[in-house]
Amino acid sequence: MNYHNITKDDMLNGEGLRVVLWTAGCTHCCEGCQNPETWDVAGGIEFDEAAEKELFEDLNNDYVAGITFSGGDPLHPFNRETVLRLANKVKQQYPNKTVWLYTGYLWEEVIKSVDVKDIDVLVDGEFVKELNDNNLHWIGSSNQRIIDVQKSLQEQKVVLYESK
Ligand code: SF4
Questions:
Q1: How far, in Å, are 12, 39, 79, 118 from residue 140 at the CA level?
Q2: Minimum-distance ligand 1 atom for the alpha carbon of 127
Q3: Quick one: 162 exposed, middle or buried, by C-beta within 10 A (0-12, 13-18, 19+)?
């Protein structure tokens, strides 16, 4: 898996101060995408041991609420295995921290092929330029949903996340 960046103390991509992993690779090609440079799955740099160490060192800080996987698309087929492994490792080491994941796929597509057990919040759907609203919290366009994954799995329907 390749990635473009690791950002820290991020307040825009999930609840609380978060470390964000910006993965490389996206096939959605949304019109108006703010990060088209992340579309190439071979772009950026290889996610190696040093990058993983950097993520977990930041998560070790008490004030960090959790990790957010963004991109690109963390659920690009090329990224899934690594991202899900990382999500599982975060939950094993920091059960009280949260895992957020942004994807251009819809929830209904995701749950058919991805084990989301280690994800707390999944923000789904492509960016739709006509539905862009800069006043929206955590999403770029109003079609995107901020989904409480564990409640959705329990209730077998989409349950939207309620901010703590
Ligand atoms: S899913 Fe996200 S990264 Fe991919 S093209 Fe759409 S807005 Fe850009």
A1: 11, 17, 22, 24
A2: 7
A3: exposed
Would you say the CB of residue 38 lies under 6 angstroms from ligand 1?
A: yes
Global pTM reads: 0.97
Question: Which of 103, 95, 7, 93 has its CA nearest to residue 56?
Answer: 93
Provide the pLDDT for residue 164.
75
Superfamily for 2-155? Aldolase class I (3.20.20.70)
Q: What are the backbone dihedrals phi and psi of residue 85, each rounded to the nearest 5 degrees, phi first?
A: -65, -45
User: Using a 6 Å cutoff on CB, does residue 40 contact ligand 1?
Assistant: no
3 in Cβ contact with 51 (< 8 Å): yes
Structural domain boundaries of the chain? 2-155
**CB 3, CB 26: distance < 8 Å:** no
Alpha-helical (H) ranges within the chain are: 49-59, 80-93, 107-113, 149-155
Segment 15-37, tens digit of pLDDT: 999 999 999 999 999 999 989 99
